[in-house]
Amino acid sequence: MFADELKTLRRLGFRHVLLQVLNFVSVLSSGLMIWKALGLITNTESPIVVVLSGSMEPAFYRGDLLFLTNPSNQRYQTGDITVYKVPGADIPIVHRVLETHDIVSDRRGVVAAAPLAQQQLLLTKGDNNHIDDIELYQGLEWLERKHIVGKVRGFLPYVGYVTIAMNDFPQLKYALLGGLGLLALIQRE
């Protein structure tokens, strides 16, 4: 079967194969542009994330797909479900805000009576965890706004299991990408 496809590619010629490759690159670049546009609209580096653990059960289960926003003009409230990433950690964490504290300081960082700049500090905890997340902060006492990836605005249950399967079994990811690439090359339209 592969030999037949190879003969078909030779018969179509270099120009047709090049056109198919360019179409495939066009599809990939369109997907990247859509991802970046979503990031700009939602003000977050990652507008869509997948829940990887059971720490937020029963609110969210492993494999749920979450949609995030990070409005710069809104403060986080106790009870908000956030996704955060601390320095040195590879994977963002989805947990609920347990406490918030506002620090008022002037431009030099000195606590001031008149608010010139206000910084919000957050403490989070997974719904299914017994203790707060201080141990996960890797030396930080509180989360700052710069650590927050976004606030959960919606979700699709179990849709993210495809992502989990591809991370757990890298061969599946390479087979899927290879199959899509081959399909793009041999497709005649």
TrEMBL record:
GO cellular component terms listed in the entry, alphabetical order: signal peptidase complex
One GO biological process term: signal peptide processing
MF GO annotations: serine-type endopeptidase activity; signal peptidase activity
Catalytic activity reported: Cleavage of hydrophobic, N-terminal signal or leader sequences from secreted and periplasmic proteins
Topological relation to the membrane, as annotated: Single-pass type II membrane protein
Transmembrane stretches, start-end: 12-35
SUPFAM superfamilies noted in UniProt: LexA/Signal peptidase
Signal peptide: none
InterPro entries: LexA/Signal_pep-like_sf, Pept_S26A_signal_pept_1_Ser-AS, Peptidase_S26, Peptidase_S26B
EC number: 3.4.21.89
Top-rank EC class of the record's enzyme: hydrolase
Keywords recorded for this protein, A-Z: Endoplasmic reticulum, Hydrolase, Membrane, Protease, Signal-anchor, Transmembrane, Transmembrane helix
Cellular compartment(s): Endoplasmic reticulum membrane
Entry function: Catalytic component of the signal peptidase complex (SPC) which catalyzes the cleavage of N-terminal signal sequences from nascent proteins as they are translocated into the lumen of the endoplasmic reticulum. Specifically cleaves N-terminal signal peptides that contain a hydrophobic alpha-helix (h-region) shorter than 18-20 amino acids.
Subunit description: Component of the signal peptidase complex (SPC) composed of a catalytic subunit SEC11 and three accessory subunits SPC1, SPC2 and SPC3. The complex induces a local thinning of the ER membrane which is used to measure the length of the signal peptide (SP) h-region of protein substrates. This ensures the selectivity of the complex towards h-regions shorter than 18-20 amino acids. SPC associates with the translocon complex.
Family: Belongs to the peptidase S26B family.
Protein's recorded name: Signal peptidase complex catalytic subunit SEC11
Annotated source species: Dichomitus squalens (strain LYAD-421) (Western red white-rot fungus)
